[in-house]
Amino acid sequence: MQYQLYYWTGIQGRGEFVRLALEDAGADYTDVAREAGDDAIAPFLDGARDGARPFAPPFLVAEGQVVAQAANILHFLGPRLDLVPEGEAARLQALQLQLTIADLVTEIHDSHHPIASAEYYEDQKDAARRRAADLRQHRLPKFLGYFEQVLARAGGQHILHRHSYVDLSLFQLVRGLDYAYPRAMQTLAPKIPHLRKLEARIAERPNIAAYLASERRLAFNTQGIFRHYPELDGGTDGSED
Amino acid sequence: MQYQLYYWTGIQGRGEFVRLALEDAGADYTDVAREAGDDAIAPFLDGARDGARPFAPPFLVAEGQVVAQAANILHFLGPRLDLVPEGEAARLQALQLQLTIADLVTEIHDSHHPIASAEYYEDQKDAARRRAADLRQHRLPKFLGYFEQVLARAGGQHILHRHSYVDLSLFQLVRGLDYAYPRAMQTLAPKIPHLRKLEARIAERPNIAAYLASERRLAFNTQGIFRHYPELDGGTDGSED
């Protein structure tokens, strides 16, 4: 099976959750825009290509289908890459967890862009400081506490009793938060021991370790979803917090 | 099959997307919290019940499973209620569209709560005015334009060539926006003729018409996701827009 992944160049973004699954499974895939440029994406968004029309990247082209929405792509890939347990109930549980991760990812994005995703961070910085404070104080403890509890209840090794795309996405979530909100994550560390160990185990999986050491793994940066602005992490930028 | 739906009383909320599917199909279901109170929800969120632990309502209990996340619930119900086309490709396309609706629903929620969902609207009103202006001017035209184009391309009657839970959710989306943003929707009307006709057709489906006329259909109100605040709709509350 050959997979074509379409996602904006220059950032990890939501495409990274799909990329980690493809890399972990050693799948044969092309990261199309990185080879052909971002212009390769537009014809799909414009409806000029066959198949389901995506609203936005990431989307995957495989088996003559276009599959969009990161959680939907992982739901499609799970059985094909042996990254989800057998059976409908387990697949629904995986999708539910992935959608909850997606909800948190949106909240993390909105912590630096609470007003308008198309406007500059600098033009919504005051609102961002308020939203990021709420994220740090309320939303991160609630979401990460939930994942920690589900992981602990499942035995601590895997959130679904065996390796899955959800474990890979939790790795990415924790890594992204470590980059964007290091102070907040330091404070939360005692509350999420199983998530921390899961993150470390995923990083040591041979295909993931090779990927992380490769040029294909872009660094986190302040163009992506996870952005490090010290003033949003409870640090100071000269004004009061 | 007997379904138990769990969702907060007093609002339509995200539970309404599930409720419309159950009602349209004439399914045998219990709206548990409306009979037993919101306290019936907590044991599931606390992990005191068997099955997958939900992060938040809505969730459905059926066939010994707990299924959470509205789009995931509809993905589960689709084949059981004959509300999705046959075949994996069509089911993935339905889920992709539903997840795109869910993304817009989150943006609509955040238009009145851009800073913190647990704080009062009045305490984030200035940020809400800015975010709502962006929603009206950029996000709604983009999302609704997308759904309109996909619907038109599919022939205009159904977004998936036949009746599905996605059509029901598009009805709810348009109705909710008509309530919350009547001025913005008036402006957008010429751009979304197929969506408007779809909304009218869904309202006339016998089971939906009966449901909308029943006491089970709560009115939209300013506690839910779709909230009508004239000042967010480009109206005036005494200050400049």
Question: Could you please describe the fold and organization of this structure?
Answer:
Two copies of one chain form a homodimer. With 241 residues, chain A is of the alpha+beta class. Chain A folds into two domains: 2-80, Glutaredoxin; 88-233, Glutathione S-transferase Yfyf (Class Pi), Chain A, domain 2 (Up-down Bundle), CATH 1.20.1050.10. Chain A is built from ten helices and four strands, in the order E-H-E-H-H-E-E-H-H-H-H-H-H-H. The longest helix of chain A is centred in the middle third of the chain and has 29 residues, at 125-153. The N and C termini of chain A lie far apart (52 Å). The relative contact order of chain A is 0.14. The A-B interface holds A 47, 52-55, 65, 67-69, 71-72, 75-76, 89, 92-93, 95-96, 99-100, 103, 106, 110, 114-116, 118-119, 124, 127, 130-131, 134, 138, 143, 146, 149-150, 153 and B 47, 52-55, 65, 67-69, 71-72, 75-76, 89, 92-93, 95-96, 99-100, 103, 106, 110, 114-116, 118-119, 124, 127, 130-131, 134, 138, 143, 146, 149-150, 153.
